[in-house]
Design brief:
The structure holds 3 protein chains of 3 kinds. Chain A is mainly alpha-helical. Chain A has a single domain, classed as Orthogonal Bundle (ABC transporter involved in vitamin B12 uptake, BtuC), CATH 1.10.3470. Chain A contains 12 helices and 2 strands. Chain A has helices spanning about 1-35, 40-60, 60-85, 90-115, 125, 140-160, 165-175, 175-180, 185-210, 220-230, 235-255, 265-275, and strands at about 130, 135-140. Chain A has a two-stranded antiparallel ribbon. The longest helix of chain A has about 30 residues, at about 1-35. Chain A is globular, with a radius of gyration of 19 Å. Chain B is of the alpha/beta class. Chain B has helices spanning about 1-20, 45-65, 80-90, 105-115, 145-160, 170-185, 205-215, 225-240, 255-260, 285-295, 300-325, 330-335, and strands at about 30-35, 70-75, 95-100, 120-125, 140, 165-170, 190-195, 220-225, 245, 270, 340-345, 345-350, 365, 370-375. Chain B is globular, with a radius of gyration of 24 Å. The N and C termini of chain B lie far apart (about 90 Å). Chain C has one domain (about 1-320): Orthogonal Bundle (ABC transporter involved in vitamin B12 uptake, BtuC). Helix content of chain C is about 75%, strand content about 0%. In chain C, strands 1-4 form a two-stranded antiparallel sheet. In chain C, strands 2-3 form a two-stranded antiparallel sheet. In chain C, helix 2 packs antiparallel against helix 10 (about 205-230) and helix 7 (about 155-180) packs across helix 8. Chain C is globular, with a radius of gyration of 19 Å. Classes of the chains: A mainly alpha, B alpha/beta, C mainly alpha. The interface of B and C includes residues 43, 75, 128, 130 and 171 of B.
Chain lengths: ~290, ~400, ~325
């Protein structure tokens, strides 16, 4: 029994870390621009398919595909930023609709280019089992757990210790004041979109190496990322990690102790509970209520 | 001189006018409607079936010197409403029958619409019980859930499994199959544990861990789709439960899975009509393989095989109905019901409800780079490697 | 005024009589039109929630699915007559909206995505609660519309008339509310919630009532669809398409007007099925995404605003002015 619980916890942590990777990009853009990029999941998926193409065309490990994925996804995010930036009125809601449309385009584009088959990594090295006592995992899961931790730490360091990162936080907390202090909000927003693209590229390589991808996956990734952003609360990067781990743990514990048929339900219910009970999320520093 | 020529000409003309009345000497083109999902969640399987149907038309047009089959294909986007609309569209274009359909949820409404339009509907994509219980005289299908469970049960019994864990997706086709197999196994005194999972699950380790630590079965049985198999096998490869075999159903014992995920497929069993590389021994099979290679440049898979067989039967029935002069008066349905022939999937006959009672699938096993049919004995071309798992 | 009545009358005649007369032979086209009007009804309800309630929702499929199942089950298991069951389907969807009341406190995007979460939850419940809904297998052979006064409403034309009537009724209700005191209060609230609360308008109640109404309308559309297609399953009833297509339709047609969503639905749906699908059999919805994006960027007020700019005389009711 304890073995079961331990493995459930371990699985939950590993899954949570890849969720965190997916959520980081969305949270960053949301924090700085107050824009929920509903196409974020599709961008992650795009990166995953780039990894697939690199692996199938050149036999390269998905890890090596990351630079290519970064380039392609960052181009896509830059384009998205360009379009979102052109919205004049009612940015919050119109950007939601615009990115929704972009998401639809990306999903169908992916379907057209890569067809409907499922894809995943063939690399035996990545799929090897790594065992610590009663805790089992795939090498790819451990690898991306480390990558995720590194990126989160890196992101936190960037936001708190560098000029650029601090500018991002300044714009996020008060756009006008930041502008008065000489920070160009447009530059900052553009940068945060690019960083989000970078993070999405890593996340895409992760989901390709750990799991199975298909064109329809995009929207569920976006939803997961949004759930975690809500759980974490605004403006908190460590919160994202905790939120992601919480989601991962909820899912694996539900599977282990109840029924695996209820896994998705558990995630949704957790989302709603946090939304209503803790409107600021677990670590949030900003308001989410209507008044 | 001119008179004789003129007489000869008029005689020829007279005979020429009589010929149609005698019927049969004119070459006909039969238009058949194909309603399949080419986009949406069932895109992959729909495309596979559509390929088989196209191959059947190609083979027919080459072999049958007289008549021609023309296909009009409409994408039903994996949705019941669009499936109905597709059938209506095809009906308005004057097709003589509807071929295709995937997913019991889409086939139900679509075949209802076909029935209303007086068209025969033949498919291999709907195994749900309810489909043949509607009392439709125009509905035909060449496979059913029972055939799949028969195959899985046969293999499990050959293995002598006394304790089986069934991991199944909560969608209808997969859970029906799982429940069927459970019932039959329990009746034979085999211990069965069931694990349902919903489509969003990507990490199967918690489930496999439960199986490894609590169930401790002889065999793990899987009922799901390709992405589920990959997930389950990956988790099993990591956790290494002590089982003797892993058995799945459709889309598993295929060359595609072998190509895409070679490390996961070792010694894994799934349903397989034919071994791979396919050795087509009958002339029918050879025609099929040749044409498939020519049109699509690849080896046929089970979806194409099913699509081929259902179309083959349909086209034969159309020609027979035409010859009997009953094409427009429900003759196709009558002729289809009289079908009784050997095909790539075995002997096919249709009962009153449109089901193929002879349908029994076969089980294949990945052995090296090949897929070897191991059950039933009549179709087996090799022995099963048992016990054997990918880890 | 007289001109308007005449125009409305002509329109009614065209819609009820001419369309079936011209197209009833072409079942496929009629199917497309019925489907487009179903989307139109949802689009109208969505726009109503947005305009009068100030709430954008990304989960209207939730109401659609609840309405479908409610109506089908009431007819099949409790023997209710189909007409009443349509209303009951709407009512059940409105009840489902009650569960969403806590979400009203949330700001824009959060509310939109909370509703999406509800849609997923309802879908999973429908899949798991096998005793009630037959789970993933869905419900087949749902009874069709009956024969009333000698006319078989299960025919294509009959279904067309039913959905057309529903949609026109919704439009009239929408127009009525807009003109009423409630509508005035709601629009004022849209502009400044604090100000209106100061004057004594209970904003939460107002928003909630719009949510219920929008849910009710969408639920009725779902119920209609269940008896029209005669088949339901969780993935179909709660499919994301029932959310996506109405949104594209409403934005395209102009979601600030009443007729906008309807025209948008008919145009977008028919274009998608008859033109885009023919050009690109796979992935044709990419054009819909592009359309949505383009409309948000260049004409957020929808198609009608484009025409209004070119042809001022054709300007229909717009956000600010109202006749």
């Amino acid at each position: 029994m304890t073995e079961l619980v331990l493995q459930a916890l371990w699985s939950g942590i590993l899954t949570g870390s890849s969720y965190a990777l997916i959520a980081l990009g969305l949270a960053l853009v949301f924090g700085t621009m107050n824009v929920i990029n509903l196409a974020h999941g599709e961008l992650v998926l795009l990166a995953a398919y780039v990894a697939y193409t690199c692996e199938s065309a050149w036999g390269a490990s998905p890890l090596l595909a990351i630079p290519a994925a970064i380039v392609i996804v960052c181009i896509a995010t830059a384009l998205t930023y360009g379009l979102v930036g052109r919205i004049r009125r009612d940015r919050e809601l119109n950007s939601l609709l615009l990115t929704y449309g972009i998401g639809i385009m990306l999903t169908n584009g992916i379907l057209l280019i890569w067809k409907a088959d499922i894809r995943s990594t063939k690399s035996a090295w990545l799929q090897d089992a790594i065992v610590f006592g009663p805790l089992y995992s795939m090498r790819s899961e451990l690898l991306f757990f480390a990558v995720s931790a590194a990126l989160i730490a890196g992101l936190w360091w960037w936001l708190t210790r560098t000029w650029a990162g601090r500018a991002v936080r300044a714009v996020a907390s008060n756009r006008d004041a930041a502008q008065l202090m000489g920070i160009d909000p447009h530059r900052v927003e553009f940068v945060s979109f690019l960083v989000a693209g970078l993070l999405a590229a890593f996340a895409g390589a992760a989901i390709f190496s750990v799991g199975v991808i298909q064109p329809g996956l995009g929207i569920s990734l976006t939803i997961k990322a949004f759930i975690i952003t809500v759980l974490a609360g605004m403006g908190s990067v460590p919160g994202l990690l905790v939120g992601a781990l919480l989601l991962g743990l909820t899912e694996s514990l539900t599977t282990t102790f109840f029924s695996s048929a209820l896994q998705e339900l558990a995630g949704m219910v957790l989302f709603l509970v946090v939304l209503f009970v803790l409107p600021n999320g677990l670590f949030g520093t900003r308001w989410r209520r209507a008044h | 001189m001119c008179m004789r020529k003129a007489l000869g000409m008029s005689l020829l003309a007279a005979i020429g006018c009589l010929l149609p009345a005698m019927g049969g000497a004119m070459a006909e083109e039969f238009v058949v409607g194909v309603e399949v999902p080419l986009s949406g969640s069932l895109a992959r399987v729909g495309t596979g079936m559509s390929e088989g149907i196209n191959v059947a038309a190609d083979v027919f047009n080459r072999k049958n010197g007289k008549h021609k089959i023309k296909l009009i294909t409409v994408d039903d986007e994996s949705s019941p409403a669009k499936a109905v609309a597709a059938v209506e569209k095809l009906a308005s274009q004057g097709v003589v029958a509807i071929d295709g359909g995937y997913g019991s949820g889409n086939i139900g409404p679509a075949s209802d619409a076909a029935n209303k339009a007086g068209l025969v509907y033949i498919t291999s994509g709907g195994v749900d019980e309810a489909l043949t219980q509607r009392g439709l005289k125009t509905f035909f299908r060449i496979n059913n859930t029972a055939g799949y469970s028969k195959a899985m049960l046969g293999l499990l019994s050959d293995m002598g499994a006394k304790n089986v864990s069934i991991v199944y997706l909560t969608k209808e086709a997969t859970s029906d199959l799982a429940k069927d197999v459970e019932k039959a196994l329990v009746a034979k005194g085999v211990k069965v544990t069931m694990h349902a999972f919903d489509p969003s699950i990507t990490d199967f380790k918690p489930i496999i861990n439960k199986i490894k630590l609590q169930d401790k079965p002889d065999v793990i049985a899987m009922s799901g789709y390709e992405n589920d198999y990959v997930g389950i096998l990956r988790a099993a490869k990591v956790l290494k439960p002590e089982v003797k075999a892993v058995v799945g159903v459709w889309s598993l014992a295929t060359s595609k899975m072998q190509e895409d995920f070679p490390d996961l497929m070792t010694d894994v069993y799934g349903t397989a009509l034919l071994p791979f590389p396919a050795e087509f021994t009958t002339p029918d099979g050879k025609d099929f393989a040749e044409s498939y290679k020519k049109l699509y440049g690849k080896e046929p898979d089970y979806l194409g095989q099913f699509g081929y067989v259902q179309s083959q039967l349909l086209f034969d029935a159309i020609v027979r109905a035409f010859d009997a002069g009953t094409l427009k008066t429900g003759g196709i349905a009558t002729e289809l019901r009289k079908s009784n022939r050997d095909t790539l999937i075995g002997r096919v006959q249709f009962d009153e409800k449109g089901d193929n009672p002879n349908f029994s699938h076969r089980m294949g096993q990945h052995q090296g780079k090949q897929v070897v049919v191991v059950w039933p004995k009549e179709y087996a071309n090799g022995k099963m490697i048992f016990p054997g798992v990918p880890w | 005024m007289a001109a308007r009545i005449a125009a409305s009358f002509a329109f009614a005649v065209a819609a009820y009589a001419l369309v079936p007369f011209a197209f009833s032979g072409n079942l496929y086209l009629m199917s497309m039109i019925v489907a487009a009007l179903t989307i139109g009804g949802i689009a109208l309800a969505w726009a109503l929630l947005g305009n009068l309630g100030g709430l954008v929702s990304f989960g209207h499929a939730a109401f659609f699915g609840v309405g479908s199942y409610a109506s089908a089950l009431l007819v099949m298991k409790a023997g209710w007559p189909i007409g009443i069951s349509l209303l009951a389907g709407g009512a059940c969807a409105a009840l489902a909206a009650v569960l969403m009341l806590p979400a009203l406190r949330l700001r824009g995007p959060y509310f939109a995505l909370a509703v999406l979460a509800y849609a997923h939850i309802f879908r999973i419940v429908a899949t798991e609660w096998k005793g009630l809904t037959n789970g993933a297998g869905g419900i087949g052979n749902i009874p069709r519309f009956p024969v009333v006064l000698g006319y078989d409403f299960s025919s294509k034309t009959g279904a067309y008339w039913i959905v057309l009537s529903l949609v026109l009724a919704f439009a009239l209700i929408y127009a009525g509310i807009r003109r009423s005191h409630l509508g005035l209060a709601l629009r004022a609230m849209h502009d400044s919630e604090d100000a209106t609360r100061a004057v004594g308008v209970n904003s939460t109640l107002a928003k909630a009532s719009m949510l219920f109404l929008s849910a009710f309308m969408t639920g009725m559309m779902g119920a209609f669809n269940a008896h029209y297609i005669n088949f339901l399953e969780p993935d179909y009833a709660f499919s994301g398409l029932w959310t996506m297509l109405p949104i594209v339709a409403a934005i395209f047609g102009g979601y600030r007007t009443i007729t906008g969503p309807l025209i948008g639905a008919v145009v977008v749906y028919l274009l998608d099925q008859l033109v885009f699908k023919a050009m690109m059999p796979i992935g044709h919805q990419i054009v819909l995404g592009a359309l949505l994006g383009a409309m948000i960027l260049f004409a957020p007020q929808g198609l009608q605003s484009i025409f209004a700019r070119r042809l001022p005389r054709l300007r229909m009711t717009s956000a600010s002015g109202d006749a």
